[in-house]
Amino acid sequence: MKPARVALIGMGTIGSGVARLLLEQKDRIARHAGRPVELAYVVDTDTRRKRNFTLPAGLLTDDLHAVLRDAEVSVAVELVGGLEPARSIVIQLLESGKNIVTANKALLAEHGRELFDKAREKGLSIAFEGAVAGGIPIIASINECLIANQVESIHAILNGTSNFILTQMEENGTDYAAALAEAQQCGYAEANPFMDVSGSDAAQKLAILAHLAFSAHVNWREISRTGIDIVTAGDMQFAKELGYSIKLLAVAERAPEGLELHVSPTMVRLGTPLADVRGAYNAIRIIGDAVGRVFFHGLGAGQMPTASAVVSDIVDTILGRMAITFKTSDLWSDGREALIQPRNPADVQGRFYLRFNVDDRPGVMADIAGILGKHHISIASLIQHENEEESRSVPLVIMTHSAPEGAMQNALQAIGVLSSVHPGTVRMRVRN
Amino acid sequence: MKPARVALIGMGTIGSGVARLLLEQKDRIARHAGRPVELAYVVDTDTRRKRNFTLPAGLLTDDLHAVLRDAEVSVAVELVGGLEPARSIVIQLLESGKNIVTANKALLAEHGRELFDKAREKGLSIAFEGAVAGGIPIIASINECLIANQVESIHAILNGTSNFILTQMEENGTDYAAALAEAQQCGYAEANPFMDVSGSDAAQKLAILAHLAFSAHVNWREISRTGIDIVTAGDMQFAKELGYSIKLLAVAERAPEGLELHVSPTMVRLGTPLADVRGAYNAIRIIGDAVGRVFFHGLGAGQMPTASAVVSDIVDTILGRMAITFKTSDLWSDGREALIQPRNPADVQGRFYLRFNVDDRPGVMADIAGILGKHHISIASLIQHENEEESRSVPLVIMTHSAPEGAMQNALQAIGVLSSVHPGTVRMRVRN
Predict the structure, then answer these.
(1) In which band, very low, low, confident or very high, does the pLDDT at A222 lie, cut at 50, 70 and 90?
(2) Can you tell me the mean pLDDT for A392-420?
(3) What's the CA gap between A221 and A203, in Å, rounded?
(4) Helix, strand or coil for residue B371?
(5) Is the pLDDT score of A47 beyond 90?
(6) Is A247 an active-site residue?
(7) What Å distances lie between residue A61 and A8, A46, A52, A55, A64, CA to CA?
(8) Mean pLDDT for chain A?
(9) In Å, what is the CA distance from A402 to each residue of A33, A156, A378, A431?
(10) Which of B144, B276, B327 is opposite residue A312, by nearest beta carbon?
(11) Looking at residue A194, what is its pLDDT?
């Protein structure tokens, strides 16, 4: 049977992994694709850089047009990353009739509508299993295997970098800065870690999952999010004392009033599966009305886990399965009615962990409790340790009962004005 | 668009769940199938029994021929269970041009070859996501999402009944008989629990997974298996003392000498994900050479989780995705070369937990240790508590280092002959 010709755009870490699988595991892949899969082009602007995988001579080029002109190439894999030039490249590839495989969640979260419209217009498909949770087959699971269900909720650890940093802090007692430096040394965090540690990367992935699982149209920028850079070694201690682990949790949950979405460092009870997710792993807990609770755990990023997902998408596209999936799932489309609207973040209820740095003098606790009470936020438990070091300020930790995010923000604003409360108040969610 | 007509054969527990989803969630299912899905027939020999779901009048019939004659029915769902008449029914349905969806692992493990050959001959497909691990999308994951990988190992809890019983024993300190009775009362175990508690059900499912993941031809009867009925309350205590939980583990692992397969109550270290699987849940841990470790956890049986899997198969079949998957995966076929042979069970190495009931007198320990040594089995640790009750026999627990199953069997046979060793020796595997 005639080989299927594939082009790879972007020879970075993931690209090298995909090239390695396509070249070194030819037999395995041909068996599953029903024909040989030929890596015909690898396009990268930098054709000279040393990589950890050496391509056969003649494969690497900086000429995207060679791919665009080759009518035999039916699948193009975008692994450039980021928004531009990735977006323009994908548009050009679609214009020239290539089906797309990508692992670029930022691109989908930002330009999904435009790209999917273009693919539909051209009768092509876009596959993106590698864009969320790397090696965990979560896109196919939601989009194909759980379709009999109304998904009720998703609770997920979607950013391996943040989870690595939090695990370092928890296991070694290090502070955030030291754990981040460690993550950067190990290659788990980039020089500029903003997208990862701010919760933005997790919010983009959550927006994609919410789109699939709830048929919701979600703008990732409108998802309420808090980063892990607020978490201190002291918070880790308090969490342990209270029986929790701190995880950057991405949550989407159906409520009668709408879809509740947030990304936040969250206290997760020790001994539960999400609390046991360590290092660079990801995990996703889904509740469906028929299937009940399903839990997935695996490497959420990294070269080979993501390459594994990308190659399965390539094979799905070659087999024609992806064309069917893409057509019926009708993602990011005007034609696809939004079945639920995101709820106003201010109205989303939750339990909260609050840590204040307060003056160690009488009346402070009464002031704070008074303001919380005025905003109808009720205190579930409280920790203030003896001030053994006789320092001027001491940490005061409050766990609240369920309260709306908006009321919590207003209360914290009022508390922040108190002269006895120092800057650096920390607020995290608590998983019920 | 013209509705897709579906027939359901077998209106038991799972059948009722599938009927409920197809009838009550019409919109949801039509959205995913790209057209309405019409439940056209429900066939059951017993049309009078009260069920927990009432069908619209006229749908239930005991006439299979009505389905066979109706050329508009493209998908038939076999939920009769067992071998016969399920096998004959599926053959007839294939002969009359129906694609099959089934959740019948016994049927596939026993007659997979015949049924798949027939389906191929007729250009039809057989889908079976519900046959293994209920609501966990493990078939699609292995068969579609992880195809870029050489699967290295599968460690799985595949029988919810056994796991429920073991969890009861562990949490309540009850013995096997009481926990089994509890499982029967709760509807988790059948009146005749043999297939579940003997490890046979898990072996059938493991054979199916091994077929998919390793391209191995496995006869489930040749898988070495031990049931959970050997486990006593005392073993549960010893396991806890040693830092383990006891799980009925189904294992398939690649070794240079072949595929190692076994089902056995197994000591799994506390705090690991498999040890945390409780009640009627199932879990599967897969290691792939690209993806690393992936872990799935969910309800492995029960009406709605299994119905969820069956309905996703129905939709996959209607969409035409299943026809592609079925064709390329070429399961249970002569044309599909076995990539690895099952290894002789006697040669499969492993660590073992041994519990003897021995006379409380000098020399016994030396006799047992001597025989183990003669068979080159080395002792890793040992527990013998003081005989506080001054009973004639006391339990002696030995944890071994890695040894071949065959050597272990020979040693136990020799030890069984000792007059100081009473009947009722227990042997379990220990997960490394």
Answers:
(1) very high
(2) 95
(3) 8
(4) helix
(5) no
(6) no
(7) 10, 9, 17, 11, 8
(8) 94
(9) 51, 20, 8, 10
(10) B144
(11) 92
State which amino acid sits at residue B253: E
- C-alpha angle B209-B213-B214 in degrees, rounded to nearest 5: 110
Question: Can you tell me the distance from the alpha carbon of A272 to that of A253, in angstroms, rounded to the nearest whole number?
Answer: 19
Using the predicted structure, report yes or no on whether residue A425 has a pLDDT greater than 90. yes
Q: Is residue A275 within 8 angstroms of chain B, CB to CB?
A: no
Domains of chain A, CATH where assigned: 4-134+305-329 (3.40.50.720), 138-300 (3.30.360.10), 347-430 (3.30.70.260)
Q: In A, which residues are within 8 Å of B308 by CB distance?
A: 146, 148-149, 288, 290-291
ipTM given for this complex: 0.94
Picking from A49, A53, A46, A51, the residue whose alpha carbon sits closest to that of residue A23 is A53
Give every strand in the sheet of B37-43, ordered side by side: B60-61, B37-43, B4-9, B73-78, B99-102, B126-127
Query: What are the φ and ψ backbone dihedral angles of B136, each rounded to 5 degrees?
Result: -80, 125
What integer pLDDT is reported at residue B188 of this predicted model?
84
Query: Would the CA dihedral through A110, A111, A117, A123 be positive or negative?
Result: negative
Distances from the Cα of A21 to the Cα of A26, A30, B54, B257, angstroms? 8, 11, 52, 25
Q: Where are the alpha helices (DSSP H) in B132-270?
A: 138-140, 160-172, 176-185, 194-197, 200-214, 233-242
Angle at CA of residue A349, ends A345 and A353, nearest 5°:
105
Give me the active site residues of B, please. 205
Of the candidates A33, A34, A140, the beta carbon closest to that of B145 is on A140
From the CB of residue B109, how many other CB atoms can be counted at a distance below 10 Å? 24
Q: Residues in chain B with pLDDT < 70?
A: 335
Nearby residues of B49 by Cβ (< 8 Å), 6 or more positions away: none
Phi, psi (degrees; rounded to nearest 5) at A163:
-70, -35
pLDDT, tens only, A240-253:
999 999 999 999 99
Residue-wise pLDDT tens digits, A80-96:
999 999 999 999 999 99
Task: Report residue A220: phi and psi, to 5°.
Answer: -60, -25
